[in-house]
Description:
It is a single chain. By secondary structure, the chain is of the alpha+beta class. The protein contains 21 helices and 22 strands. The protein folds into 5 domains: 3-140, PAS domain (Beta-Lactamase), CATH 3.30.450; 147-324, GAF domain (Beta-Lactamase, 2-Layer Sandwich); 357-458, PAS domain (Beta-Lactamase); 463-535, Helix Hairpins, CATH 1.10.287.130; 543-691, Histidine kinase-like ATPase, C-terminal domain (Heat Shock Protein 90, 2-Layer Sandwich). It has a 5-stranded antiparallel beta sheet, sandwiched between helices. The chain has a 5-stranded antiparallel beta sheet with strand order 7-6-10-9-8, sandwiched between helices. Helix 18 (504-535) packs across helix 21 (659-669). Residues 319-346 form a coiled coil. It is found in: Cell membrane; Membrane raft. InterPro entries: GAF, GAF-like_dom_sf, HATPase_C_sf, HATPase_dom, His_kinase_dom, HisK_dim/P_dom, HisK_dim/P_sf, PAC.
Amino acid sequence: MTIEQSKSQEALQPTSINHHTRGILQFNGQHFRALIEHGNDVILLSDQNGNYSYASPSIQRVLGYSPEEFIQLNGFTLIHPDDIPSLAEAFQQLVATPGLSETQQFRILHKNGSWRWVESTSTNLLQEPEIQAIVTNFHDITDRKQIEERQHLLSQISDLYISSLDHQITLQEVADLIVPDLADYCRIVLIDAEHQIKAIVASHIDPQKITLVKDLYEQYQGRISATHGVQTLLETGQPELISVITEETLTPLGQENPAALPIIHTLGLQSYMGAPLIVRGRTMGAITFSSVQPHRHYTQDDLDFATEIARRLALVLDNARLYQEAQEELAERKETEELLKRREEEHYRLAAIVESSNDAIVGKTLEGIITSWNHAAEQLFGYSAEEAIGQPIIMIIPPELRSEEDTIIRNLRQGIRIQHFETVRVRKNGTRVNVSLSISPVKDAEGHIIGAAKIARDISRQKEIEQRKDDFISMASHELKTPVTSIKGFTQLLVRRFQRLGDEESLRFLARMDTQLNKLTKLISDLLDLSKIQAGRLEYREEPFELDELVEEIIENVQGTTSTHALILDVSTREQHVRILGDRDRIGQVFINLLTNAIKYSPKANKVLIQVTKEGNSAVIRVQDFGIGIAADYQEQIFERFYQINEPDLKTYPGLGIGLHISKEIVERHHGRIRVSSQKGMGTTFSVLLPLLHEEE
C-alpha cells in the first residue's frame, strides 16, 4: 500500500458526518481494511475534478485495473459517451452540495475493452476535515442489466410484429435492434414453402460492411454441404455455437469454400452463433449472430437467449403469416363480392346499351341459333324478338350466301373475330339490305367459346353514295380520256415538227409535257379500271404465257424510265419457263405498279431486287426495295381502295391509293395472292403468288 493510500485510509475515520457515511466508517483498523480489501463493492476517493486518490483492491475484480493503474485515470475518461452528460450534471450538483449523496447507474470501460454496468453511490465529504474527498462505492450490475435489456429486446421484437405486417421492413428493424447490443453483425433469412430463400436482411455496426455480410452468405447459398452457417441451420434445424473463432476452426471452412475465407478475415469474425426459426415443426428461416470484438465470446447462455429470440421471431412471423392470409382471404372475398356487383351493374348497363343501340345486335350459339335480338334488330330485319329468338340465323341470310355462315362459324370456333364484313341480308318482307357485320366469339367462365355476338349495321345509304361516286369516277374518266388522247396526239405532232426545225428547247418542254400526259393517262386508266372492278366489268383474257419472260420485259421497260435505281433480277433463284394461265397485260400492269412503287418509296436507295421462283404449285415473284418501309399497323390496309397512310414522312408521296387495290383485285381474279413484308425504315418486299400452268393443262 502506498503512503498516499495509507493517508487516505487514515482519513476514513469516524467523525461528525452524515449517518450513511458514519455507518461505512464505523469500523477501524484491521476490520475496516478487511471490509474494503475483500468486499465486492469498490471504494473510491476523488477530488472535485474527478481525479482519484484511492481505489480499493476490488477494483481489479470488477474492472480489471490495479488500484495503482486506476488512480492515474480521470473517472470521466472511462464512462460510456452516452452516459457522460447525465453523470456530469449529477457530479456538478454533488460537488456544489456538501454532504449530498447521489446514486447512478452507468457504463464504465473494463480494461479488456468491454463495457460493464455499475451502480454507484457518491457522497460529497469534501468539507469534512478528516476526509476532504468525494467517497464513492459501486458494484457490478452487468448481469442484471443484461437480463433487463434482453427482456426489453424480446418485448421490442414482439411489439414490432404487432405493429407491422411488412416482414421485410420489420426483419430489418429486428436486425438493427440486435446490433450492437448482442452482435456486431446479424443476418436473418426467410425461406418459402419450396425451401427457397425469399428474404434476407443484414445489419452491421459498420454499414459499409453490410455488402460483405451478404457476400459471405452468397458463398454458401445453394451449396450441397456446409459445416456451419445459414445453410446448416436450415438443413439441420439445430442451433449452433462457435465460441472462439480460430484458424483451426476456419480450416474446414476454407477447404469447403476457399473464396469465403478472405471475407471472414476482412470481417474480423471472433465468435458466432445461430438458431433456426422453427414453428409447428416447420423451418421458416434462420438468424445468425456474429462478434468481431475480442472480449465478446458467446456462451451457452447467449445461445439459449438467441434460441429464444428465434422462437419468438418464428412465432410472430407465423402469426403475421396467418393474419396476412386471413386478410387476403377477406380481401379476396370482398373483391369477389364487388366483382359480382360490378358484373351485375355492367350486365344491366350493357343490356341498356344493347337495347338502345342504333345497330342491330344479335347473339347466337355455335349451332347458329339466335339467343338475343335487340330493338334495332327488330327495326332492321322486321322480326320481333319473340319471332327471332330460338330460330336459326339463316332465316335472314339469302340462300346463295348461306355458305358465309359456315365460314363465320368455323372462324368463331377458332376464336377469330370478323370485322366490317360487308354482305347482304334478307328482311322479313323479303327485301334485301346491305349490312356491315362485326362478329366476336362469346366465352364462358372457363374461357370456352360458346357462341357469338353479332353487330349488323345498315350500310345501304353508304353503298348508294359509293355507287354514285363510282359512277362519277367512271363518267369523269371516260370524259377525260378523249381530250387527253387528243392532247397526246397533238403533242407528238409538235414533237415531230420541232425535230425538223431543230428547236431543242421546245422539244425539252414537250418532253416534260409528254411525261405529265403519261401520268395523267395512267391515272385515268386506273380510275377506269377501278370503276370496272366495282361494277364487275373488268375484262380478262385467259391464255398461257411465260411469266419469267413477262417479268424481264417489264423490268426492261421500267428501267428505261429511271436513272436513279438499278432493277436487278436475281439470277441465282431465277426460274425459266414459268408458265401460267391468265391475262398477260393485266399481270404486267401489276408488276409495273410494284416496280414503280419500289422506286418511288426508296428515294435514298439505288436498287430494287426482283426474284422469280417456283414454290410448290405456285409461281412466286418478289419485288424488294430498301426504302422507308411500312409500319405493321398499316400493312393490311394498304390494299384498300383510296387508302393512304397518314404519316408525316409519307405526305411527300402523292397518289390516290388505288394502285395496290387494283393489283390485288387482278391477282385474286387469277386465283392468286399478294402479300407484303416490311419493317419501318428497313424496306418492303411484295410477293405475288400465281397458280402454275401444268403440262396436262
